[in-house]
Design a protein that fits this description.
Helix content is about 40%, strand content about 20%. By secondary structure, it is α+β, with helices and mostly antiparallel strands.
Length: about 375
């Protein structure tokens, strides 16, 4: 009877999560003005940008909102083989605005310039903001459905609210660029590869340290506050500044293959030294650094079935622990510096052949 009760609870929770993350909205800055009637289920990574790594129309994808998959894998997050139409999709734009915004990089060859990098960056940013807003709503929906929120859920909802506040500041900069048709307020780094990336990703995140492990920015401080439950004075981490954030996308476009970073110019002080340290990494290890970045910092990760299945179980487990360390707590944490010491690639090598940027000092 208890097993049946647990199954029903998982089924109910999974339905709440699924429905919450299917919230339909158009995130275009002019919405709802001139929106088309339907909100489309669009890919964060366009199908044309990852179709080269599919096998029989399927890819591996980390779905961190599916409780059934978590239960089937004994509580550990791992990628699952899914059809490409189910990978990295969200209801974030109406059909009209989605086409207007993203057709320049979907219907023609991607070019390593600020305009195309900005468009890719805006797609990644929009998905991040959409997911964080859904996360805030999720805990309200769970509570309304009769489930009690424990202290961890309350803390996660508070963190999601704080994330939304941070993202709303970046939203003003992105929206201004779209309304004015001007990308002068953004910087970019684009890395071109000889080989197709076996891992595709979109994300919008912060990097506090460079690829040598050196701390670049600190947006928090330790303050003493009273614990409302115990009455004790305890040290608490508190944000003191806006968090610098960058978008990222790895993609393949008509025989060209890229990793794209794009961020507001106001954050050049943070991302210029960080991404210069990436560009100065040994070329044979840049791919491993990018794989690490994607799995540690991003939610929307797509993997080539042929590549993933060619990895040893140990390497798969190491990468899974990067993607979700809390469900792989028994593993020794991998540091970025662990991946960059040595000459031969550990997980893959897409063979970088060129770097493009309006900000980074490119070292040949």
């Amino acid at each position: 009877m208890r097993k049946k009760s647990v199954d029903l609870s998982i089924h109910k929770l999974n339905r709440i999560i699924t429905n919450t993350f299917k919230r339909k909205t158009c995130m275009h800055p002019e919405a709802p003005k001139e929106c088309s009637k339907s909100i489309i289920n669009s890919h964060t990574i366009s199908k044309c940008h990852f179709s080269d790594i599919t096998r029989n129309g399927q890819i591996y994808f980390y779905n961190k909102t599916n409780l059934y998959q978590l239960e089937q894998s004994n509580g550990k997050f791992q990628p699952n083989l899914v059809g490409m139409k189910h990978a990295s999709v969200f209801y974030g734009f109406c059909g009209k605005h989605d086409k207007e915004l993203f057709s320049p990089i979907e219907n023609s060859t991607f070019k390593p310039n600020i305009v195309h990098c900005f468009i890719a960056g805006y797609r990644a940013f929009s998905r991040q903001l959409y997911d964080k807003n859904c996360s805030v709503k999720l805990y309200d929906n769970i509570k309304k459905s009769g489930f009690k929120l424990n202290i961890n859920c309350i803390a996660q909802q508070s963190a999601a609210l704080q994330d939304v506040e941070q993202l709303d500041e970046d939203k003003l900069i992105f929206n201004k660029a779209i309304k004015e048709g001007n990308t002068d307020d953004f910087s970019f780094l684009c890395i071109e590869f000889k080989k197709i990336p076996n891992l595709m990703v979109t994300g919008f995140f912060t990097l506090g340290s460079d690829y040598k492990g050196r701390k670049i920015c600190d947006t928090s401080s330790i303050v003493l506050k009273e614990n409302i439950f115990s009455g004790k004075i305890i040290p608490v981490t508190q944000l003191t500044n806006k968090i610098p954030m960058t978008s990222v996308m790895y993609l393949s476009s008509r025989g060209k293959h890229y990793a794209v970073f794009c961020w507001p110019k106001t954050d050049d002080k943070t991302f210029k030294p960080i991404l210069e340290s990436l560009q100065r990494t040994k070329k044979s290890r840049i791919t491993d650094a990018l794989i690490y970045t994607a799995l540690v910092h991003c939610e929307n990760v797509i993997l080539s079935p042929d590549w993933w299945e060619s990895l040893s179980e140990e390497k798969q487990e190491n990468l899974n622990s990067l993607a979700h360390p809390t469900t792989h707590a028994e593993n020794i944490p991998i540091k970025i510096t662990d991946l960059l010491n040595g000459d031969d690639p550990i997980y893959d090598d897409w063979e970088p052949i060129a770097f493009y940027s309006d900000t980074i000092d490119i070292k040949e």
